[in-house]
Amino acid sequence: MRKYLILIASITTLASFGQPLKVRLFSSYNLSNCWVTSYHADYHILATDANFHVIDTIDDLLEKGIVKTVHFKQNGSHISIYKSGEDFGKYQGLYFVSNKNTGHFIISGKGADRIYNGNLFLRVYQGKLQIINEVELESYVAGVVESEGGHVTEIEYFKAQAVLARTWVLKNKDKHIEEGYNVKDNISSQAYYSKAYLQNSKAILQAVAETKDSVLLDKNDALVFGAFHSNSGGQTSNSEDIWSQEISYLRSVPDSFSLKGDKATWEKKVEKTRFYAYFANVLNLSKTDTELQKAILAIQMDKRKPWFDYNGKKVKMRNVRTEFKLKSSYFSVEELGDYVLLKGRGFGHGVGLSQQGAMEMARQSFNYKEILKFYFQNTHLGVLDRYHF
What we know:
By secondary structure, this protein is α+β, with helices and mostly antiparallel strands. It has 10 helices and 22 strands.
């Protein structure tokens, strides 16, 4: 009973200290099993109801300092627990928690194993196993920086990405609140595939620490929408060209820093009749209209254009990108036998910070404040303060 009360006290303290972020893990997958291995911490498993209210403790499942693996398996609307082949019962929800919130654990599910700090919630929600990492904000930010661009060594880029990651999650903290968590771990929110622990983690953690509590604000001191993409191809996009909403600080700018990098250019062949037919259908014209075909072949983008305009009728280039699964909507067209050859620039929607451009700016000795100022016009840095959870 005493252990149970201590655990409840530790959860209450943790929840009141800066309100840890709740991130849904493996959100791109439909999991029914996962294996969790604890390291270097006194982790315990608490039974909860479906709303994560603690109702009981499962004693002596994990002892301090001993590496142990637990298997969680969806069992209808409940979750079963197994350790070393032994069945420890099934529950509506489970809370995998450390007394001191100082440990880390490995999750094996789909794809590569993942390493996280903090605690775990598990439950079945709308018929699916839901796994949620409860993690302190700055640990989450470091994990995002590594997941998004941890392969480089430029610390000023890491700082810029850290500020954006922090700003984005604070602005979007209620995105999935009705589903029991704040954000997902995939690119529909921000990539968060592990804590920062790989080869450049020391620099990433330093960058996060040195920008701690910093957020990016607009002229009205509101949190900006911290959009970013892989590579602009040499010019960023206006927000309204992609999302139909004009945002004052997300303006198209020439971006010479993004003319290099493995995502700066691309090519793709598309069957010519299919390509012509798509434009004809959108414009409500004949797919054999030769003048339309000539106009399509004349697409030559020296700068980003949000629309293909033909005799006053328009096709949104963003939709072309989606239809043909292109890396960007920034491309030119050439005829190539039975195909059209699309020669493209950039990777992603093009709004906000170009990650490869920011990396190049850092290589050229621009600091993170200058990088953010370049991609987000009429903005300034502020302190976390009232924007916290």
